[in-house]
Amino acid sequence: MAVRPPLINVMARAAEKAGRGLVRDFGEVEQLQVSRKGPADFVSTADFQAEKTIRAELAKARPAFGFVMEESAPTAPSEGTSRWIVDPLDGTTNFLHGVPHFAISIAVEQDGEIIAGVVYNPVTDELFWAEKGKGAFLNDRRIRVSARRNLSDALIATGLPFKGHGDPSRIRAELDAIMPQVAGIRRFGAAALDLAYVAAGRFDGFWEADLNPWDIAAGIVLVQEAGGYVTQIDGKRDPLNTGSVLAANPHLHLPLGKLLRTANGTRRAAG
User: Fold this and answer.
1) Do residues 239 and 216 touch, judged by C-beta distance below 8 A?
2) What is the C-alpha to C-alpha distance for residues 218 and 211, in angstroms, rounded to an integer?
3) How far is CA 100 from CA 23, 91, 94, 193, in A?
4) Which of 47, 62, 118, 214 gives 20 to 30 Å between its CA and that of 191?
């Protein structure tokens, strides 16, 4: 049985407490107050309540840490360089449509590096967690990225632009390049869980652009600690701050990257 480090316990308690509220609200989703942050970009009272719960739990345990949270303004650390990066409800559109595929994502950034993270799906009670140098786990079980070597056997996840967001021409070019080469592509609508699934070997890779730090921070350390590679789509190494992510097992990261970069280069040349 895996022994969770203290920092993971802090994040897990916060995620599980907020998760109980999300499960309750999920059962009464038609009664929730919902507003729009932009076209097809929703936020509900469930998001705000989950964020409030998580913030209170984390601040109580580590009062000196700063916060970067989806639904509120960032706060700087009162001392040191550590900060929490939190998405209280990744997959809000799924949540509001009664689709049980959403998660809470919490990570710790220290000196510009993600050192720990959890991704928690309260519907399935799956807690994915990792701390730098200590491996990645699903609940109490060690997890690893898949060992598949051939794109033709691979199941790859991605995100698709929605109304008012992203570049449809980019994703069309990328899909045209990837689809003929792989066993399947999935779009589930929660980047944090997509990355957690790569870490657990359920997906062999994942790519998406135009993401926010709270969408991917915990997933980055999960994939890395599970033995996978995480870069930007263009191969550079700052996915957290650029919002461009390519994550895969060590065998497929390079060929996926080549296909995506060729597709984008051809699109730009044609445009």
Assistant:
1) yes
2) 13
3) 9, 9, 7, 12
4) 62
Query: Are 10 and 117 within 8 A, CB to CB?
Result: no
Q: What is the residue-level pLDDT of the chain in tens, covering all 271 positions?
A: 688 999 999 999 999 999 999 998 887 766 655 545 544 344 567 888 999 999 999 999 999 999 999 878 899 999 999 999 999 999 988 988 889 999 999 999 999 999 999 999 999 999 999 999 999 999 999 999 999 999 999 999 999 876 556 688 899 999 999 999 999 999 999 999 999 999 999 999 999 999 999 999 999 999 999 999 999 999 999 999 999 999 999 999 999 999 999 998 877 777 6
Q: What angle do CA 79, 119, 35 make, to 5 degrees?
A: 90
State residue 258 phi and psi, 5-degree precision: -60, -45
Residue 189's region, left for phi above 0, alpha for psi from -120 to 50, else beta, is: left
- Report the candidate in 246, 266, 251, 42 with the shortest Cα–Cα distance to residue 158: 246
Closest Cα to residue 217, out of 132, 131, 114, 129?
Answer: 114
Q: Residues 89, 78, 211, CA angle at the centre, nearest 5°?
A: 30
Q: Which residues, other chains included, contact 171 with Cβ-Cβ below 8 Å and sequence gap of 6+?
A: 158, 160, 161
For residues 231 and 256, is the Cβ–Cβ distance under 8 A?
no
**CA-CA distance, 115 to 85, in Å (whole number)?**
11
